[in-house]
Specification:
Layout (H helix, E strand, L loop, with lengths): L6 E5 L4 H12 L3 E6 L9 H9 L4 E5 L9 H4 L4 E4 L11 H21 L6 E5 L32 H17 L6 E7 L1 E3 L10 H11 L6 E2 L2 E6 H13 L5 E5 L2 E4 H7 L13 E2 L1 H11 L5 H7 L9 H6 L8 H13 L6
Parallel strand pairs: 1-2, 1-4, 2-3, 4-5, 5-6, 6-10, 7-9, 8-12
Antiparallel strand pairs: 9-11
Helix pairs in contact: 1-7, 4-5, 6-12
Length: about 350
């Protein structure tokens, strides 16, 4: 790839990661053709309108739907790189097949169908997830996960969001390996933290910070290991994956091996201390009450994750993309402040 200004497509332009990615691309002089589900004016588009005003004539929006075949072709016209970021991120759904698997898997294949029909596209950067590499933390017992790791334990019945992400990424690699015109690269971030460009962010990471600040976990936090990474570093990883000639394959994008309790520690200078968890809950107590408090916390999930540390090896992304990661704590505090400004903690 070249360091010259590019014309690129970003799917899911109103998304959390996509917003920072588009801002980074525009600031570097690239032209962005972004897709949204609807072009009707709504608060979701406000951040994109503001970016368009800051960078005139560099951002154009197109309407496209993950489940409508052919709808992404107009947005890709003339693009050399496609960033596919559009995919639902939610842990609580009534119909996992309809709400998670279909948009992730069928949406990815629809996007790649459009790529195959657009001769100008040379590289596709897919926003995957760490959960495509790891289903349950107990899998880290054999060693730190890396780009060779695949999630083989999730299903529609057990961690369906993770199942949707690994299914979509496997399908993308199968499609990529069937041809030689365009190259696939995946970015697999851990839990993404940091401010949102738009108002009323809906990412699960914001919901977690909201729960912390609202006192939902004040009795204690489960010992759930996880990785954390700032959204601006995730955006930078996408850009470098697009422009670095040596970029290839999958990239585990993680700044810090951590756990749920450390999010609370990052907030202790901002949130009322009486509302933040003071202790790490013993596993036996999570086992006893977890399923009654949160339907996501099934006993199978608890057994395979609580008390099992998360461990990662990020040497590849640091070396190939020359990426260094910022401290995640300031970004967590920015999330809390953004939620506070929007009245998320008001009585």
């Amino acid at each position: 790839m070249t360091n010259e200004p590019l014309t690129v497509c970003v799917t899911g332009a109103t998304g959390y990661v996509a917003g920072h990615l588009i801002e980074r691309l525009l600031a570097s002089g690239h032209r962005v053709q972004g897709t949204v589900r609807s072009l009707s004016k709504s608060p979701k588009l406000q951040a994109l309108y503001e970016l368009s005003e800051r960078y005139p004539d560099r951002l154009e929006l197109f309407q496209a739907d993950l489940l409508v075949q052919g709808s992404f072709r107009p947005a890709m016209r003339g693009c050399s790189v496609v960033f596919h970021t559009a995919s639902p991120f939610t842990l609580r759904v009534a119909h996992p097949q309809r709400d998670l698997l279909d948009p992730a898997l069928k949406g990815t294949l629809n996007v790649l169908d459009a790529v195959e029909q657009t001769a100008s596209v040379k590289r596709v950067v897919l926003t995957s997830s760490v959960v495509a590499m790891l289903g349950d933390n107990q899998e880290c017992a054999a060693g730190a996960i890396d780009e060779s790791s695949w999630n083989d334990s999730s299903s529609l019945d057990h961690l369906p969001y993770a199942y949707s992400k690994v299914s979509a990424e496997r399908a993308a690699w199968q499609r990529a390996n069937q041809q030689s015109r365009w190259q696939l690269i995946t970015i697999n971030p851990t839990l993404v933290v940091g401010p949102s460009l738009g108002s009323n962010p809906t990412s699960e990471s914001f919901e977690l910070v909201r729960q912390m600040g609202a006192g939902d976990l004040k009795t204690g936090a489960p010992r759930w290991g996880m990785g954390l990474v700032d959204v601006r570093d995730v955006a930078e990883a996408h850009v470098q994956a697009a422009v670095c000639p040596a970029a290839n394959g999958r990239y585990l994008c993680n700044a810090q091996d951590s756990e749920l309790f450390e999010i609370a520690n990052a907030l202790r200078t901002l949130a009322p201390r009486s509302l933040l968890p003071k202790y790490r809950l013993p596993t036996w107590l999570v086992w006893l009450v977890g399923p009654m408090i949160d339907p996501v916390m099934t006993r199978r999930v608890i057994r395979r994750n609580i008390g099992h540390p998360f461990r990662s090896n990020t040497q590849k992304i640091r070396n190939d993309l020359n990426l260094s990661f910022r401290d995640v704590a300031p970004g967590i505090r920015e999330m809390y402040q953004q939620l506070e400004q929007e009245g998320a903690f008001s009585p």
